[in-house]
């Protein structure tokens, strides 16, 4: 089942075009890695798909389940966000805000969803800890649990392992792999880590010149990959 379709999509800011005539689809269960050089438009594309900025031209079509349930989003953290003085439970629960229509109180179903997400990511024991006191890897687990509260269908991850050490990075990739392969959650991830991409991705979207969209196996045997290795 197709969850997202981008048709002849042109994105940018004002009159500045970053990407144009972009066509690709995301199907249920895909693990799509979005790669490209800095400034190629990766984050702008993700923000446009998330309706955080408007496209200049073209269409983005969403399956009705995505329209109803939304998309879980794990953005890159700023240093200020890493110092946020709230409990783990509060941050995970905040992922239910969109589903609750920004009501001042959470429903019992929201609280149950937060407990389930914390159990999935093995952070239940951190529920009452202050977020800013956690390690980088623990904070990413908390934010991933928050994203899971927003939806059980599709997750957008923007450089989720940036700044993490190799052991924590491997652990985090294993979590994403489990959510995709065992839980059936569609993954869209911006990444510079081609080695991890090779292990887990089903599809690659390479932005810039040359452009590529297709199966990961085809990408790693393409001239585009050869070009990437040479630069």
Give me a quick take on this structure.
With 231 residues, the protein is an alpha/beta fold. Helices cover 39% and strands 24% of the residues.
Would you mind describing this structure in some detail?
Keywords: ATP-binding, Hydrolase, Nucleotide-binding, Transport. It is a single chain. The chain is 39% helix and 24% strand. The chain is α/β, with parallel strands linked by helices and 231 residues long. It folds into 2 domains: 150 residues, Rossmann fold (3-Layer(aba) Sandwich), CATH 3.40.50.300; 71 residues, no CATH class. The strands form 2 sheets. Strands 5-6-7-3-8-9 form a 6-stranded mixed beta sheet, sandwiched between helices. A 3-stranded antiparallel beta sheet has the order 2-1-4. A hairpin with a 2-residue loop joins strand 1 and strand 2.
